[in-house]
Write a structure and sequence with these properties.
- InterPro entries: Cyclin-like_sf, Cyclin-Q_second_cyclin_box, Cyclin/Ssn8.
- Keywords: Cyclin.
- By secondary structure, this protein is mostly helical.
- The protein folds into two domains: 107 residues, Cyclin-like (Cyclin A, domain 1, Orthogonal Bundle); 100 residues, Cyclin-like (Cyclin A, domain 1, Orthogonal Bundle).
- Helix content is 55%, strand content 5%.
- It has a two-stranded antiparallel ribbon.
């Protein structure tokens, strides 16, 4: 069942904006996350902006309830509803529309603002592999996109700050570099591999389930294992070296996150 919101239009009549529910309960389609990443690349978005958009979409997909929104005023011209009916086979599917709204909101949250026309054109081209040429369809998409942006804000409780694992990974890489032989980072692509794994970690809903510092440790552990680099430990200590980075991360929990990260590639 879909939630709807009603707003006034230019001709004084109410219109209804249908708000889509996740197509899969507690499961995000990998293709939608790749859609966000591809669109973000075309928009030349910052890494954290794309990560934030992905986090928002995971939050949407894991939401138990859909919250209806009330638009104070219409952003569509009076003939947009008719145009929408004529072009309903085009436009963007529900999840892609939400993904575009996630990018729009993430850009504002990360101070990486996008021109809404460019965002719609990029999202449309990413999905259809062709340019959006119908001005009526553009206004229809624009109105729904702005409605979805407000809806997403309600889902996240109007929060504006989210912690990402990126800053933790930077600190952990610096710490581990001091523990390893001086030429280790020169001989192994640990930094590049870690950032690739971090980007791919956002394909999984672990980014909304696990603490960001725990994800950063798991990414680092995976990188070290793939490069066959062993971190030296104090032989008389029972503490694993990861405890020096994140004391509250249990070994079993670390294994679960590492396994979830590796499952992305299976």
């Amino acid at each position: 069942m879909e939630a709807s919101s009603t707003s006034g239009s230019d001709n004084g009549q109410a219109r209804s904006v249908m708000l889509p529910q996740p197509t899969e309960s507690h499961l995000v389609s990998r293709s939608i996350i790749l859609f966000i990443q591809e669109s973000g690349m075309m928009l030349e978005a910052k890494e954290l902006t794309v990560a934030m958009a992905t986090l928002l979409f995971h939050t949407y997909a894991n939401a138990h309830d859909v919250v209806g929104i009330d638009l104070e005023e219409s952003t569509e011209p009076s003939n947009a509803s008719a145009a929408k009916e004529e072009t309903k086979t085009r436009g963007l599917p529900n999840d892609q529309m939400v993904a575009a709204a996630c990018l729009l909101l993430a850009g504002k949250m990360e101070e990486n603002h996008f021109n809404i026309r460019k965002l719609i054109n990029v999202a449309y081209k990413t999905h259809h592999k062709e340019e959006l040429r119908d001005i009526n369809e553009y206004y229809s998409l624009r109105g729904d996109l702005l409605a979805l942006e407000l809806w997403l804000l309600r889902i996240i409780g109007f929060r504006s700050n989210f912690a990402h694992p990126h800053k933790y990974l930077v600190c952990y890489l610096k710490a581990v570099k001091d523990w390893l032989p001086p030429d280790t980072f020169a001989r192994h692509p640990l930094v590049t591999l870690s950032w690739c794994l971090m980007r791919d970690a956002y394909l999984s809903e672990m980014v909304v389930r696990e603490k960001p510092e725990h994800i950063a440790v798991a990414v680092l552990v995976c990188s070290l294992r793939l490069c066959k680099v062993v971190v030296p430990e104090e032989s008389r200590s029972d503490r694993h070296w990861t405890k020096g980075l994140c004391a509250d991360l249990a070994s079993a929990q670390l294994d679960n996150i590492v396994n979830a990260l590796m499952d992305i590639y299976s």
